[in-house]
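Example record

One chain of 290 residues, shown exactly as stored in the release files.
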Amino acid sequence: MTKLGMNLFVWTTDMEEDMSDTLSFLKSSGFDFVEIPINEPNTNRANLAKWERIGQQLRALDLGVQTCTICGPEYSLISPDDTIRRAGIEYLKHVVDCSAAVGSSILMGPIFAGFKAFTGKPATQQEWDWSVEAMREVAQHAQTQGVTLAIEYLNRFEIYLLTCADELVRYVEAVDHPNCRAAFDTFHANMEEKSISKAIQTVAPYLVHVQISENDRSTPGSGHINFTEVFDALADAGYTGPIAIEAFGLNPPSLAAATHIFRPMFESPERLAVEGLDFIKQSLSLRVGA
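Predicted structure tokens for this chain:
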């Protein structure tokens, strides 16, 4: 049965604060797992103990976990500076270690390049090769930790190496490692794909994670994304893997600035989570009886 989760971005970006009440709320609301952001320097090895404690907390709640991250410009795998590329590899290996410590078997995100680090030109073959080579090394490390990398393409305003399903599949096949697979985010697909159903069909052979995100980053089902097409395509592809809600609000302020959220998009994170979960459950029940 498909597991349903909630990304914690509407509450936090770093898990430094006590999230006990939120985690308990999500469990009691019917979520199977949470998607936790990991964004900390790779020099902070001691923080593995923190992730182990969070993992114990989640297990006590019988709440599953997956993780996500991004690479800032200082960790870009396509930087012309080889010291930055090496820093990116080591950062991602550290995030893999943190993911394993918290109990996550999937680490997802646009980890193939620097977030919002642009050259003003299309990606070059050299940048592609740098990223593929680096990702293969990270995937090899992830395999030793029991973690699968779920690569997420973004829209053209946030990244420029991978921005559509065709490019993502070509990238996964180039990395050619069983621990490097694909994620699919409806927000980015809504912007970049001519057909969401065809995009899902394209990534389906490698798809291990889906994020349901509305066109304005608010409650799924309240905007204009054609989720009938999305869930029909997932059902046609036989996808039964995890599905998580991703949304963004005015808090945390740093994330609101990064995602360009300047007005309230929903009444509260809690209401968004409950209504979004109900929408996904209803959508799935019409197709696969989940």
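Notes: The chain is about 45% helix and 15% strand.
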